Amino acid sequence: MSEAISFEKRGGAAWLTLQRPDKLNALDAGMRETLLDYFSGLRRDPTTRVVVLRGKGRGFCAGLDLDTANAEAPGFRPEPEGREHFASHEALAYQQSWSELALRMRACPQPIIALLHGPTSGLGFSIALASDVRIAADTVRMNAAFLRIGLTGGDCASSYHLPRLVGGSVASELLLTGRFIDAPRALRTGLVSDVVPEDELEAAGEAMARDMLRNAPLGLRLTKELLNASQGATTLAEQVALEDRSQVVALSSGDPGEGSRAFLEKRDPDYAP
Fold first, then answer.
1. Pick the residue with more confidence: 262 or 183?
2. Per-residue pLDDT, 220
3. Dihedral, CA atoms, 236, 238, 244, 247, nearest 10 degrees?
4. Among 87, 207, 214, 266, whose Cα sits 20 to 30 Å from the Cα of 51?
5. How far apart are CA 171 and CA 163, in angstroms?
């Protein structure tokens, strides 16, 4: 486990904090492996129902730690004299070690709330996009920084998630230019759910997690599955069929009985884990 990531349990919510403030929480290989292991293990962790992801210091995450990349990544590190090109399979393996992070975030059954402030660039931007809900501080500045260092604008699923969040024109602008998007525009385009003063960001995350935790654990997980499936659904009928099957599974759990009784009795429901 990387010491640059802290884990805190608050009831059914797990709070993950990126804590390399001297590097604006730029991600290195140790942090990558810790996050990959953590998100993979969530499927086997029924006690964690919501994940809140944030960064310590002046920003959420400035992206890839280029000092680390220069040492280990094909295409960044200096090549031996006379070797102008590295093997493509090396580059692909390195790239997939990072893009796997977005896949595991989307595959874990728990909704992920990203609390964004300050610089949120490159891989940090992609991690924010792979989260389920984004709440921004008024200080946030986000961009697809990869393009500005000779790579493409699409990295770690950014070219998949961004058009679905903000539409084709805004996504194309951001990915083709590397321009920054600030908090007001992020809210206008639907990139984030809310913008709050930076000193209220944690409270906003707690409120969002609390609202999610009021719901049945199974219903919460099935809803994330439905939202994932809707990104690739080809027809209305296909998505409705998935919804119908999910509702049948939820009905068989007994949770709707407790939920309806609690509603009628004007109390909070007591769902089994």
1. 183
2. 96
3. -100
4. 266
5. 5
